[in-house]
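User: Okay, second chain of the day. Same drill as before: sequence in, structure tokens out.
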Amino acid sequence: MTGTRYSVTVDGRAHELRPSGGEVILPAHGSKIHHDPGCAHLTDSARLDRRPDPDGLTWRRLLDAENRADWAFSAGLVNGKNRPLTGVCSCALRPVTPDHADSLPYWPLDQALDAFDAGWLTGALEAAERRAEEIRQEFPIEAWPEMELERYALGIRKIRPELPHPYCHALEYGSGELGSITGGSAMKHLVYWRDGGGWWHDSGYPDATTAWHAVRQGIVDAVTAAREGRVEDIDDIAAVRAANTLIAKTLRVYVPDAIIPVYADSYTRHYLSLLTDEVPPRMRPFARKAYLHRLVRQHPRLGDWPPDLVYRFLAWWAPPREAPQAFAVDLAPDAVAGCLVNGYAAVGSDELGDLHGFADQEEYRKAALRQYPDGADRRGALAAWQLLSMRPGDFVVGHHGGSGVHAVGRVTGDGYYWRPELPGHRHTVAVDWNEPLDVTLDVPVKDWTAAPVTKMRPRVWNKFRLWQLGRDEVEADSGDTHDDTTDVPALQPLDPDLQRLDDALTRRGQAILYGPPGTGKTYQALRYAVQRLGALSDDLPGLAPWAEPDTAEYRATLEALQKAGRLILVSFHPTYGYEDFVEGLRPVKGQAGLALEARAGVFKQVCEAAGDDPEHTYLVIVDEFNRGNVPKILGELITVLEKDKRGLSVRLPLSEEPFAVPRNVLLIGTMNTADRSIRTLDSAVRRRFAFVELLPDPTPLRDFNVDQLDLGIFLEELNTRIRGALDREKQIGHALLLPGGEPVSTAQELAAIVRDEIVPLLQEYAYDDYGLLASFLGEGVVDTAAHRLRPLDDEALVAALYAELQVGTDAHSA
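Assistant: Same drill. Structure tokens below.
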């Protein structure tokens, strides 16, 4: 085998690829090819047969074969009993954690291109173009300026069933050949008819007609911009900002050469990160799509490929890592045979009809409540909606009653499909079933009996999977190291925030970063460590001082600095003391039993190391600085920390040794002022530290939208309300909306941050005064009478925040 290992994604899960080194090993028993002659699954590997693997791609071709057994026979991949090898051993392709995968280089693009066979996609590409032409014929772009809302909007057939399916239905449910935009709610279509009556539209418009005219013009303008080569200008069309996936798929239909048809912005980011290291920061969604298109067109091997083929190659080579989900589906006895033979899982509640006919989950829920008064029938109907959330690669356990397991399989194709031709149980999802199990579990799985479709908790799925496999699957960490001798660049200017910190440290030797939660205090301290300390540590191999946060190079630089002892991270807390930081008595074994011995604390150890190594800078970062009893922790250090007293020694009272703080030791503390103001710090401490304030900054969030919600305006308005009711130290920091340094981009991500991070902070500030909480977020989000948040789904929560915190705050423009 070769020494280099790669990260690959197989079935949505991260794997480590260990290349074969030119040949694959054929086992005497078993069904998998091997790369490592030392694999524990092999015995007497020196005597086993080999097959040449000159380009190292046998593993990929085997996994991609339509019939693996036939392909294995044709390639001579058989075991000692002449049975085909249809899998790949973990010595070649090992499941790993995402963090481990991120530390590896991705499977090389050129190797993937060598292995990729575009021929098997010919039929799919032709079908996609036929479907696009059908949509163009049914909804000609020339007719769009006068198109009626009824020809566009989902839900209209609820009240006018005689109408043909509208455009939004064709795009979301009637064109799987062009790629999927299913999932979430109908809000991504901007205007739709709700169950129970009434149009839903952006609350910034007074009525549905006004909203539709704006949306219609926005779609026309987006297509025009794409035809004129101005894809990035689509980001400025306010009326369609909340419909990125809809607009992207619309471009695939009407301007097929304008973009690579990667609809989700998160996927665009993913593919850009693999194709280049030079992505401009904080690009907006369609600017990113335009940039990806330019990169592909400039590529020597991809440049002449049609965009559809490029996307299908990218999705085959490096699909985003999304851990497959697992679902248990209760298959009725009279439906089992049809399910297993025809490749689907099926459930009932047929009276409601095709799930695609409902605009969103809330509309379906209301219909189910009306249709099914009985509790069990109602639970079954509500559970059927989960079929829409199943994606290719997800696991399905087909069972009955929680104990009789029929088979296990993987979701394939487009997932959910309504089959009106069946006599019953017409809600189906396509599944590639493994061999039937037909076993009865000793103890029924309680979770599976709650409803006909249940999403399996990881604990339950892992337990069942281990039972099925009959053995544990253990992931061992790799012990390999990688020698990176990349030259470290010379010291360069820092960005303004870090330069302020650097200037403060130059003046005083120690500084405190303080501000409200989420302003990036620890983030900035670590960035400073990587950039300044990394650039100054030119004797350490493999550092990347200018690596972007949350990258493998950034994490490797932090780890190398810590391993060398030049970066030390500690956290103060109420029980942290002088003996931890400076020196204290610790029990040691002596001849007469345990004895107490003076031991150096963290900071003393750093100072001793720095004193012996004056050529290099040492940095101590103290997180939560104000949570400890700072005067007690520092003791006599309070004197020798001062810049003009660096190098002077004091005698420590315990060890009676002289102690000095070298000039090459820097100290950064972080303080959350929502917990405790800097005014509460001891005055002697305040005099010796520089204080650098970090306040919420909406600037990096401006013009970045989640649906219609401008993140910058949202943060600014929310903090205006907080300052008015409380104080400036309890504002919400921008870093909460910048996970990984990039603005949050989906309703799911933003809703999770609001529910799990922002709301708990505001509840604490409001002392559970839900009237005050509602004054921050609005009564559309907070139910003041019930003292809780309203049970809104992700898109509805974002829409409510937009209506409360942005409509009327900014000038709504179409």
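The longest strand covers residues 404-418.

User: Thanks, on to the next one.
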